[in-house]
Hints:
Layout: E1 5-9, H1 15-25, H2 33-45, E2 49-56, E3 59-71, E4 76-86, H3 95-109, E5 115-117, H4 123-128
Parallel strand pairs: 4-5
Antiparallel strand pairs: 1-2, 2-3, 3-4
Amino acid sequence: MPDTTLVRAAxxxxxxxxxxxxxxxxxxxxxQRDAFDATWRDLRETPGALVAVAESAxxxxxxxxxxxxxxxxxxxxxxxxxxxxxxxTHRRSGVGGELMRFAERWAQQHGAAxxxxxxxxxxxxxxxxxxxxxxTFFKKSL
Length: 142
């Protein structure tokens, strides 16, 4: 990761820089800016939600969205990473790994037993970070 890249919790004024990344991340849906803005406001007030950004030279070059929730299976909280997106110009530079490590520290600080996620296209990235392929992901659009 370039020395000038900082991973931190997102701030309210990061929305305009996260939006293009979130819009470009989608493959199954077409994100709408008004829905993004409403979700952005709600996420900032949602207990157990994390939005982290990677910033380089004053610009957001990646983001991660995760949630922490209780489970019976793990005897308490777990963390689920919903979205990880890095700008094309900063891929393969360590930014994604730094975002994941930030989320792992956040999850651990909040007592999560594990961090999990679903990915169709980035399996090798996650296995390189030490994640195991442990389940099949099912989805039903409503």
